[in-house]
Each structure stands twice: as structure tokens, then as C-alpha cells.
């Protein structure tokens, strides 16, 4: 395992997602400053997520064919520009343009850095992806604190202050990109020689083309249920606490911080559990196992809502590593494209759902919207249809 490079990718993920998480954390400030509706709030998230969704598979496919050293640094330059513009945006259209630029930066970062983490794993893919993911989750958890301590007291212009983090990340990514491309070339040469000497299982676990398509479709549905529910909670949790229980913005941001911290802890747990017990078991119990808590969440008081939200965040977040590692193993020659597909679709589907649920909240109310969203983890039943993976399992 290339520990130094993996640590740098993890820290880069922390910076990238820490910057990105400022957007949902600052939504109440933007709503009050510009008089936005819930549908417009959802559209802001939709733009940044759809931008990532459309570009990530394309970026992944391009870098699979032509690895480049400076893709990560270039992506962070888009983020830098988006932050500067968002801090100064005076209209709703300017806000949408700025978050689109930030989405472009995320689109470049995720498939490229996920591929680097895969090749830096030294065979411990679940652990490596968990380390990579926890950097992003930790960064996302910082967003509400940044909003509480910086954006809330100083307003929208303070968002531009975080451009200094993007500048630092761009400098770090110059080194990460150079070392990552060199490591990937060495690993591919070594893997090819190993296959020639010992033989290797064919990609796709011996499934037919139709079976492989069905396999990826099931993984994407499971990713949909997981990401959409988490994205809905993340983007509307503070509004739900404020409007339903009368919390002020600061206290609601602390609750969101706890939600994101539990998401990071769940990601850390998901990697070793995937390596130990197998991907199918982790996926099954991470998504379906969260269903009882999600179904109860809209029907309890303030303390119960916060406790259940933290529990759901921890349980469901452990599924992402298992889903991603299984998909990457099924298409080892398309690491960047698969990473972009799953990262991109998860972000894009979360954005689409956020816009749809935002509209539903305007029409039917936040409580009804949360009750409808709580059905999503029931999609975990699909995990029973997944093939039994070859990973060693101990019950």
C-alpha cells in the first residue's frame, strides 16, 4: 500500500468535499439573502450535482485512456473560480453559474482520485477506498461548522474566503497527479506480468454480458436508494429542524455536523467490514438495515429525529465502499470510468431527488416529504439478488 500517496489523496478529498459541503450548509443563508423558494434551493443542488454527473464518466473514460498528471489541479481551478463568483453573486442565475463551476471541479476530482486510491491500495481495496472516502466525509462534516462560524456571521461574501483552500489543494494535486500516474503505470505492468505467469479470472466474475448489465443495474439501484436518502437528509435536515422544532440556524448546523460525522465514521467502518465479511453482506445490511430507523424518523420528537438521523447516516454510509469496490473489480480496465459513473450518478441522482423533494416540500410540506423519502432504504431488498461474492466472510 502506497501510504503517503493514499494519505495525500485522502487529504485532497477532505479539501475538495469540505469546499463542496459549504454549498448545502450555506443554503439557509442564500435562501434568506435572495428570497429563494424550496424549489429554487433544490435547483441549486441539482445544478452542482448534475454538472458532476454528466462530466464524471467522461472524465474517467478519458483519463483511463490517457492518464494525465494535471487533471486534479485543473479541476480545482474550476472550484476556485466558482467560490469567488459565489461569494459575489447578486442574482439567482449567478449563483447557479458559480455552483456549476464547483460541480465541474468535483467532476474532475472524483474519478481521477478514486483511480489513484485503487492503485495505491496494495490489494486492500476496501480499506483503501474507505480511507479515501473518509477524507471526503470528514470534509463534508466541516461544511456546517464553516457555515456556523464563518458564513452565518459574515454572510454570503465570506464564501469567497474559502478559495484559499482551493488554491492550496491545486498545489497539492500537482504532486498527487504526478505520483499517481507513475504508480498506475507500474501497477498495470506488474498486473500484466502476474496474469501472464499465473493466469487471472476474467473481468466480470464469469458473468455473461447480460448478467453483468443486470449486476451493474442492481448496484446502481442500491446506490440510488442510499445516495438519494442521504442527500435529502443532508440538504433539508436543517430546514426540517428549524421549521418543525423551531431551532435556530446555529443549532441546526451543529446537528447537521453530527449527521456528517456519523457518515464519516460509517465509511471508515465499511471498508474493513467489506474486506472481512464480503461486499454483498455489507450492502444488504447497510441499506436494508437502515430502513426501520428511516421509517420511524418523521414520527418522533426532536431528540428522536436527531438520534435516528445519526444512526441512519452511520449505517447507510458503510454501503458506498462495498458498492464501489465491487463495481471496480467487475471492470478492472475501466477504473476511471466506473468511478466516474458511480460517483457521478450518485451525485446526479442525489441532485435530481433533492430538486424533486424540494418541490414536494413546497407543495405538501417538509414532514410529508420526509415521510415519503423514508421508503427509499427498502430498496435494500434488491441486495438479496446479488451474486455471492468471493470475498472471505466470517459471521
UniProtKB/TrEMBL annotation:
The record's CDD domains line, in alphabetical order, gives: MFS_FsR
- Mind telling me which Pfam families this protein's record contains? MFS_1
Q: Which organism is it from?
A: Sutterella massiliensis
Sorted UniProt keywords: Membrane, Transmembrane, Transmembrane helix
The record's section on PANTHER family has: FOSMIDOMYCIN RESISTANCE PROTEIN
Q: Which InterPro entries match?
A: MFS, MFS_dom, MFS_trans_sf
Q: Does the keyword Transmembrane apply?
A: yes
* TM regions (residue ranges): 36-55, 67-86, 92-109, 130-152, 158-176, 212-232, 252-270, 282-300, 306-328, 340-360, 366-386
Major facilitator superfamily (MFS) profile domain: residues covered: 5-392
The protein depicted here goes by the name MFS transporter
